[in-house]
Write a structure and sequence with these properties.
The structure is a single chain. With 367 residues, this protein is an alpha/beta fold. It is built from 13 helices and 13 strands. The protein has a seven-stranded mixed β-sheet with strand order 2-1-3-4-5-12-11, sandwiched between helices.
Amino acid sequence: MKKSLRAIPLLLVAVMLAVLVSACGNGAGGKVDVGIVLPTKDEPRWVQDEQRFKDALKDTKYTSEILFSQGSSAKEKENVEALIAKDIKVLIICPQDGDAAAAAAEAAQKAGIKVIAYDRLINNTDAVNYYVTFDSIAVGKAQAQYLVDHAKGKGQPLYLYAGAASDNNAFLFFEGAWSVLQPKISDGTFTIANSSEAVALKDKAELTREERSKIISQVTTNWDANEAKNKAQTHLTAASADQKGDVAILAPNDGTARSIADVFASDSAVTSFIISGQDAEKASIQYVIDGKQSMTVFKDVRNLVKDAINMGVSILDGKTPETTGSYDNGKIEVQAKQTDVQVVDKDNVKAALIDSKYYEASEFTGL
């Protein structure tokens, strides 16, 4: 009995120490230098970003706290207010909704905090100081250039597909792609096979947003693989013999590219096809290795995180962050750091994705 009584104070000490240690975690219970708000913990991308941010900040003298909005703009604003209370100096936020996030950004600005929009732009407010993003126009240009570089002869059928008409990035991707494809449509290298709106505008080098909207609305996939599959099937069913053979396909991302590629591969009248993609999704990398998808645009999120942290550290150090362009958010031109993208195809897939440790070789067959 005496032994167990003596053990109680030791147990209390252990519990108190555990509580003390937990209270001294990263940013908990005290002031925080950098507040980071991400959209949701339910998607692998953002969980991976959480760890990447932690890793990137390890080598700095600054503290951080990372919160998740779980798909709710109201929760997002609560998170920002909680971080403001911890006296953050820099807010890095990937908005759940670009318009709704304006209120959270304005609350941060009022508290004297510099706001960095991460991956997605915050719209219709002057409370955004910087934007870290992949260059969406460059993505579209890279996709289109691959099709141009692998064109076969004259009059090659060209099938156009786009992302969601509700997504501003889809407009930027298409803007970049059109700038490269249009001269080759105009000179007869390509013949548009599936968009009467694009045919009507084929001689116009620069399209207004309304004109792009007309084309995108006609060839949208809504970023949905099934919708892309159905649209491709409809187009091929309606296609004439001279709209098959060797074809070129502008697919907006990897998920839609795989669906569209499967449809074209199943049509015996399609001799060959070149198809674009983006995101370097694992399933599409296997498609690239197997020759089922021609290319993907690799957007290395590790670099996006580094750019965001470098920008935040520059602000904390009293320096002006490096920027490479600007984006109109409906209220102001937001200064931006555009992270580079890389074209990946069968020739460089190992160097770009395996040697760089983005993926493990064991995740694929046929490398």
